[in-house]
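Example 3.2
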Amino acid sequence: MYDMGTRKRALALVAQGRSLNSVSKETGVSRAAIRSWQSRIEPLSGDRSRPCPRCRATPEPPDDLAAYAYLLGLYLGDGYVSAFRRGVYLLRIACADAWPGLIEACAEAVQLLRPDNKVLRVQSQGCQYVTCFSKHWPCLFPQHGPGKKHERKIALEPWQRSIVDAHPWDFVRGLIHSDGCRITNWTTRLVGGERKRYEYPRYFFTNRSPDILRLFTDTLDALGVDWKQPNSRNISIARKASVALMDAHVGPKY
């Protein structure tokens, strides 16, 4: 009795993390109906996608290593994996509306990792959630677990470390696109006895997890990028040569 638009809207609200009860009240659809759609509408009707490379008898790395390194950075910054039902998991990456290019890049990376699964974009206030259902997100992101990332240990598996070592700039770009920025700072200096304003670019990365900060700085060290940590949550990159490196491989959000 409900058209496909109503069904998709209800499932999109659930994908935002809303309870079945609140979605039912907003849409006028019973909770039982919404639950049934979760198992009848793609991609929730079972994972028909190609086998996960990590689930094979001999686990293999993902097919697109650069896309994985980038998505890993996004996930560690602004992403999370949550159990849905019947062994299906939901990956959600929060992307600010101000950066449409970032949203496109995120959706492309998710699609490259799970090419046979649908990638959805769920609008929320000030941002879009790039989402995708799959049974295999915990395989691809073993950092998944209960609680907030900054309240538990975050460490890369050896196979993830190999990918980051092979594609460090993609990893750094994902981290900057999630929890970082490129800004223009300014200061003043005396020039010929006259105080003049001086502007310079700087990159910042902010995260509450010391483990994720360390993953970021370890990768910067391997790339020859100088950095400083002004406080417990921030990493600053301000030296001219290092900013130039970051501009060449990362650049500002867009």
